[in-house]
Amino acid sequence: MAALLLLAVLLDRLFPLKLPAPDTGSTVVLARDGMPLRAFADSDGVWRYPTTAGKVSPLYLSALLTYEDRWFYRLPGVNPYALARGAALSLREGRIVSGGSTLTMQVARIIMPMPHTVAGKFVQIFRALQLEAHLSKAQILDLYLNHAPFGGPIQGVEAASWAYLGKPASRLSHAEAALLAVLPQSPSLLRPDRHPEAARRARDKVLRRMHDEGLWSEAVVRDAEMEPVVARSLRAPLEAALLAERLHQLHPKSRRIVTTIDANLQRAVEDRVSNYLARLPPRTSAAVLVVDNASLAARVYVGTAEFGSVQRLGHVDMVRAPRSPGSTLKPFLYGLALDDGLITSQSLLVDAPQDFGGYKPGDFDETFSGPVSVAEALQRSLNVPAVDVLDHVGPKRFVARLANGGIDLELPQGAQPNLSIILGGASARLEDLVGAYTALANGGIAGAPRYMPGQPRQARRLLSPGAAWIIRDILATNPADVDGAPMEGTVNRHGAVAWKTGTSYGYRDAWAIGVADGWTVGVWIGRPDGTPSPGQYGAVTSLPLMFDVVGMLPDHHVYVAQPASVRKVDICWPLGGAASSTPPALCRQRRSAWTLDGALPPTFAERDLTAWSAGLVTVRVDATGHRLSATCHGKGQHAIQIARWPALATPWLSADDAAHAALPPLASGCAPDSLDVASSIRIAGLGDGARLRQAPNSTTPLRVTLQALGIAGEVQWLLDGRLQGSSLGHADMRLALPQAGDHQITALTRNGAFAHLSVHVDKP
């Protein structure tokens, strides 16, 4: 006996076991419910999803052990009776009928292949005894569960269950458990996706064995036999493919990576994106990121419109690709200005041609609107007012605040933060933008999206709770009629969706980001190679898809109370102060504004003007209402106050507002004062009210040549509020009037002087 033991030890040392390394092999990336999103095959091309006996259905374990090895827990890896019976049957039939292998012997052959010969059988027995000596029964069983062959590249019961049945091995029915228990006996011949009838017969054999052993009742077996063998086409899962690849690269040694992704939502959104992009140019791609506001967990991650597509550059993950953010940063700018006490939600801004130290921004459609509120400027994404606010906040400070909130802008090499940043003059990532927008639902606290359950929460202050609440209210009450938005008067089960779009220069990037009660959704559409896509911009291209995705999300109502720092106050235009403390004569327009911490800032003062500055002007007048300059006196002189509008807003004022803001004329004999330094201007070349007609048989647009008289500096020319160009002094300006109808032509100088005239173009 001692000699046999010594021989066994010697053989064990000479021929050691070669067990599969636990940290090598295939990797599976799972959704939050355990559903595989993507599997990465090992070096041999094998798909294997790590599991243990505790994670597998008891029905399967019972069927496996009953059918393959009833004595698994009682014998040391070899069943002499089964071996003898198998040998006798083989001799009688002249071929191998039953090898008498135990489950442990099968594991030995699986992990260390050996020939199906008599010598091979002895090696198999030896290896089985080694397994029993070195491992516990639970470890041996787990080896089988993870390495048993199930046809094609599939190994292990978990991979087989997902591949054939589309469900985890923990949720198998009696029929499914019996099918997977017998499949490794002959995986090529019993594959249910190729040989369903053979698979059914083998399955039913297991079911009958379970009944004969008294483990499953006749009723259970009869019902199981009625269940058809239906298997999916064998394919590897490929949802959230780029996120899976990203996490696999971050955790190359992990064999099982669990994500925060909702598998059903992910699949539904991927299908929606695929269908949606069918109507867009063929090289267009898209990215969608959905984050749970409360946990910051990403539930949907679509990094490309079509993974693997060469045409769409489907290998490029646009969730984390740096792109020009267009106007998507504007909500944070206005929020910071609220925190600084520079504005209220209804502060007066001017959308007109302006010069910011040589930088002359225009609006998206080059149309200007004159006096607008902060809310209107943000909702309509007007560029000039945003640049004006950034000029007051400071570009460097704004960039630093964004970085603190998780948006680390990438500037062109060697560039410093400047005013163009607010219009997309830097690069940002979709995941950073989505994380920052969650601040609008989380009291101003922005957070990085989380992709794994154990990933630490990274949350940082971006705005105050009051500023975040006001900005969200502005974006959620946008009156724009946009495609895909809930119809007015209908019940929105997510509450009001606060949304913002953006389009980068040259139509390269179309953005839409929405904040619902429980969700933040970001959408990017464009070409990964940066090629322009004319006509594709945020409101038309990305916004409808964003609303589609929001509509697919589960109900998630969260009540966000109005912060104590926010209150409604009526203010007056043009001065900006509280209506309660502004004389009625100086309150030309009354606005109901959200204010933060009681701040009621005045309207921004003019910049770079040689004329008057906007604000409250006190002048002396005589009894006839004529203005008196400093050294001038008159009968009945007294002081009056005038609320002046910003000079650049003047062309858009009503006649009544313009009259109330105008300075009284100087009294006769009074020396000019500084209030009258603005030059007068008039337009030459056309008369007000002129009617024009295109020349007969002409195919070229009607053009007129105009001049601005009375000014030596730069003049901006607008047609129907749309900037057409500029001229210097009396230089000619040619304007095209391609459409019939009424038109308004305006000439505007930097100091606020303007002239305009109306013309009518007859139809040809």
Automatic annotation (TrEMBL):
<keyword id="KW-0511">Multifunctional enzyme</keyword>
<feature type="domain" description="Glycosyl transferase family 51">
    <location>
        <begin position="44"/>
        <end position="211"/>
    </location>
</feature>
<protein>
    <recommendedName>
        <fullName>peptidoglycan glycosyltransferase</fullName>
        <ecNumber>2.4.99.28</ecNumber>
    </recommendedName>
</protein>
<dbReference type="InterPro" id="IPR012338">
    <property type="entry name" value="Beta-lactam/transpept-like"/>
</dbReference>
<comment type="pathway">
    <text>Cell wall biogenesis; peptidoglycan biosynthesis.</text>
</comment>
<keyword id="KW-0645">Protease</keyword>
<dbReference type="Pfam" id="PF00912">
    <property type="entry name" value="Transgly"/>
</dbReference>
<dbReference type="InterPro" id="IPR011815">
    <property type="entry name" value="PBP_1c"/>
</dbReference>
<dbReference type="InterPro" id="IPR036950">
    <property type="entry name" value="PBP_transglycosylase"/>
</dbReference>
<feature type="domain" description="Penicillin-binding protein transpeptidase">
    <location>
        <begin position="287"/>
        <end position="514"/>
    </location>
</feature>
<keyword id="KW-0378">Hydrolase</keyword>
<dbReference type="InterPro" id="IPR001264">
    <property type="entry name" value="Glyco_trans_51"/>
</dbReference>
<comment type="similarity">
    <text>In the N-terminal section; belongs to the glycosyltransferase 51 family.</text>
</comment>
<dbReference type="InterPro" id="IPR009647">
    <property type="entry name" value="PBP_C"/>
</dbReference>
<keyword id="KW-0808">Transferase</keyword>
<keyword id="KW-0121">Carboxypeptidase</keyword>
<dbReference type="InterPro" id="IPR050396">
    <property type="entry name" value="Glycosyltr_51/Transpeptidase"/>
</dbReference>
<feature type="domain" description="Penicillin-binding C-terminal">
    <location>
        <begin position="678"/>
        <end position="756"/>
    </location>
</feature>
<dbReference type="InterPro" id="IPR023346">
    <property type="entry name" value="Lysozyme-like_dom_sf"/>
</dbReference>
<keyword id="KW-0328">Glycosyltransferase</keyword>
<dbReference type="Pfam" id="PF00905">
    <property type="entry name" value="Transpeptidase"/>
</dbReference>
<dbReference type="Pfam" id="PF06832">
    <property type="entry name" value="BiPBP_C"/>
</dbReference>
<dbReference type="InterPro" id="IPR001460">
    <property type="entry name" value="PCN-bd_Tpept"/>
</dbReference>
<comment type="similarity">
    <text>In the C-terminal section; belongs to the transpeptidase family.</text>
</comment>
